[in-house]
Specification:
This protein is an alpha/beta fold. The protein contains four helices and nine strands.
């Protein structure tokens, strides 16, 4: 299974022990690593990791919302709007959002999320995608994403190509 670290640090070091065997590795932000399933499943318990499986929505239940988390940067949240609208329109998906308390009302205004939370909900979401850290690569002068538009970075993450940048509210 492929996993990527989507947290705020450029690089982290992970040590885990499975069945008495220690596994150690550095993870660079936003780089997929192909790992044995048992190690990947253990690492995915940390919400700052995303699996390639979690980003494949083809087999998910269309009635259950996918929970996205982006806690800060209102401009980056707004850049997410055309991505969510595209996925809703083309794949029939539903989304909920966890964000900073100060952005909840703004994001509700767009009327594209089933729910907008300021704290992680107690409801158990089958699909969760951590977006904190996904766009932060563009701040590095060593990264090719520094010249990409925020929407393009989201498109790359979700492996889609949207046909229009629609930032309007839904009625």
């Amino acid at each position: 299974m492929k996993v990527k670290y989507a947290g705020l640090q450029d690089t982290i070091f992970v040590t885990i022990c499975i069945n008495g065997v220690e596994y150690m590795r550095h993870f660079n932000r936003n780089t997929f690593y192909d790992l044995p399933d048992d190690i990947a499943k253990s690492i995915l318990k940390n919400r700052f990791f995303i699996s390639d499986v979690a980003l494949n929505f083809n087999n998910c239940d269309k009635e259950l919302p996918i929970l996205l988390q982006r806690k800060y940067a209102l401009g980056d949240l707004i850049q997410l709007i055309p991505i969510v609208k595209y996925l809703k329109r083309t794949q029939g998906l539903k989304f909920s959002l966890v964000t900073s308390e100060r952005f909840v009302e703004t994001m509700k205004w767009f009327n594209i999320f089933e729910n907008v939370y300021s704290k992680m909900p107690k409801d158990d979401y089958k699909h969760f995608v951590m977006l904190d850290g996904v766009l932060e690569n563009d701040h590095s002068l060593k990264n090719e994403q520094r010249n990409m538009h925020r929407v393009d970075i989201y498109e790359s993450l979700f492996n889609i190509s949207i046909d229009k940048y629609d930032f309007t509210e839904e009625r």
